[in-house]
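Intended use. Records like the one below are meant for learning the mapping from a protein sequence to its folded structure. Do not use them to infer anything beyond what is encoded.
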Amino acid sequence: MRNRVRDLLDRVRQSLFFIPALIVGGCAGLARTLLWVDGSGSLDGLPVLSTTVASARVILSTIAGATITVAAIVFSITALTVQLAASQYSPRILGVLFRDTFQQIVIGITTGTFVYSLFVLAAVRLPSNGVDQSSPSVSTTAGIILAVLAMLLIVGFLNHVLQRIEVGTLIRGIADTTTHEVRRELPEHLEANPETALAVDQLSGEPSLRVRGTTKGWVTSIDNGQLLDAVDDGGVLRVDVEVGDYVHSGTILATVWTLDPPSGLESAIRGAIGTGTNRKIEGNPGFGLRLLSEIALRALSPGINDPATAVDVVTHLEEPLGEVLTRDLPHRVISDRENNRRLFRPDRPDRDDYIRAALQGIRLIAGAQPEVISAIIDLAHNLVSLLPESEAGRGDSLRREVRLLLQHAERELPDDDVKLLRRRAEKHGLVPEPGD
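Structure written out for the chain above:
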């Protein structure tokens, strides 16, 4: 259930419809309420503009025409921003761009002001047959306030868009989100799990049940608690997919070893493994690292040739990778409090997986870019220096990436450049010095 709520909230955050629709509905309700206030005639003491029916209709017509034009401009800017970012950085950052609450509020206010004006215009009519129409002063004043607010938001939106697609801001935002997810997924300190070997040994027999998926999509979440609750006492459940995998209808999601599979076990397991049409960083920090790596790869491509952006990416990788190195990895075998039920997740990513996701692609294409190589060497040094001597082995993956990167550079760069880079790595103890 928790995973379903998270997935629903994530879809709402990415939607350009939900929040604007709520604002439009609120503006429609505001119009009905203020029209009732105007009709009641109790306007004493209210700070409103004094208007006639004729002037109110002119003002509201102007507001309606202006705001729908402004709304079209907002839509055009949004589409242009998405297209530019997708072609310049990566198509997979569209989810990041859609999770922009300010953008959704601007769309909602501009379209809501238009709808508000239409509702008030439909209710405010010129007097006829000698019957006077009450002055819609409150409704008109509120329409003017909404119009001024919409115009101010448009100015702020232009400034916001220009800052949001700036490469440093975009990279920093993805890195911060990835760091947050690493801290949420990886515990700061975790006690050893003595039941790991016992649980793995229990997987030798013929399984009682294989649960297959009924839908296709990316695995976005796995609820360990719900999976443990689904199995009866003495049972073991192995999850055969991991967050970030793509599954089809018929893909084996989990395998269960139990004497008596409880009713509803298959549906409970399927409900605990959430899927979606798009990948996301939430719950999957490895995807955030790959997304940063992809931005660097796009920057290093011959068509763009922007090594400074790749260096910026490498610099921002320090914080999330630092959390990966200094935090403990979650257990692959999880049991309930009584150790009667066990859950096995063999494909959970380890530190090597996170390091490769962040640096492997950059390393394979950066062999001819000395400044990028220097940035990776400095990154590896800064990260390794975070580790105490008792945990120095956690930095082996970084040292391996540096060694492979220097080997690649030897085939791409002049000898003098390679010597400088190797000397830099040797200074930080990332590669063995000659004669060691």
